[in-house]
Amino acid sequence: MLNRANEQKKDTLEKLRGGDGLIGRQTLIPPEESCGKFKMCSILTLEPGCSIGKHGHNPDAEFCYMMEGEMTILDNGTEYTVHPGDAWFCGGGAIHYTKNNSDKKAVFMAIVVE
Fold it and tell me: How far is 70 from 100, CA to CA, in rounded Å?
């Protein structure tokens, strides 16, 4: 299944998972076209001050890859600052959140798998 860049759905999510502000989402592969494997496969953009609220993953899991900017993440109780090239994974009931505390946009890929 090919999903060309100019055909990918782009939308905006408000207060995602109880977070702050608006999150830009570019859907790379829609769930209905992933053979039941992805709940989400997207590029997410957080403007300064925006966040995705605290939430867990179980039985699903989430893989993220930082592409641009920097963010603060909570990874199962510990906060980290992530930069381009950093990757993280949340599953097994672990809790996480994502915050853009910088003065530039933050862009990362997020894939939530069943």
Answer: 7
Residue-wise pLDDT for 51-72, tens only, equals 999 998 999 999 999 999 999 9
Token pair 């860049």: residue: 5
**Token couple for 75:** 């990874």
Q: What is the pLDDT of residue 5?
A: 94
Which of 85, 112, 83 shows the shortest CA–CA distance to 96?
Answer: 112
The reply to whether omega before 59 is within 30° of 0 (cis) is yes
CA–CA separation, 36 vs 107, rounded Å?
25
Distance of CA 79 to the CA centre of its chain: 16
Closest CA to 88 of 109, 69, 103: 109
Q: Taking a C-beta distance cutoff of 8 angstroms, is the pair 62, 74 a contact?
A: no
Residue 114 pLDDT grade (very low, low, confident, very high; cuts 50, 70, 90)? confident
Q: Please name the amino acid found at residue 86.
A: D
Quick one: CA torsion of 77, 81, 85, 86, rounded to 10 degrees? Answer: -10
